[in-house]
Write a structure and sequence with these properties.
single chain; elongated; two-stranded antiparallel ribbon; 3-stranded antiparallel beta sheet; 2 iron, 2 sulfur cluster binding; binds FE2/S2 (inorganic) cluster; disordered N terminus; 190 residues; alpha+beta; 5 strands
Length: 190
Amino acid sequence: MATTPEEVRPVTTQKPTATRPTDTGPLPVRGPGPVPVTLTVNGAEHRVDIEPRVSLLSALRDSLLLTGAKRGCDQGTCGACTVHVEGRRVLACLTLAIACEGRPITTVEGLADGDELHPMQREFIACDAFQCGYCTPGQIMSAVALLDEGHASDDDEIREWMSGNLCRCATYPHITAAIRAVRDTTSDPS
Ligand code: FES
Ligand code: FES
């Protein structure tokens, strides 16, 4: 349908505000071109030159070559890109890398302790909790966070709090079993 002149969104000629006030004064302008960003991933600092619009997922995979976090939907619906930022699970495809400066990031590559797999990784193997494996890094990162959050009291709660992580191979019962196994072996029986 044709638009009348009144329906056309007015073009602003005002330049975007380059700074925003804070208690300590205006923040410096960064971007829109590549800027140096320091990311702390799995305990190591990395400096990358990226545009401020770059997602954490792209920075991890394309700049740091940490390809554990997977790009599934790239729009926040599948959970394949789940990583931890400051110990909390986030969708890396919806998180700006530049917003993670100074905040510790953990990816699935950082879960194991040397050759010793994280208990959740071990139970995913023991419970046969994957088929193609594409969703598995995100599932494991969510599962680890879920236990830390205290959302694993029963299978219903596990399913509810894992519902943001989709598995096209439908390994859900095995994923639930793996989480249950870690919960039962790590929780204090007293
Ligand atoms: S790739 Fe991030 S939620 Fe699907
Ligand atoms: S194991 Fe294939 S998508 Fe989950």
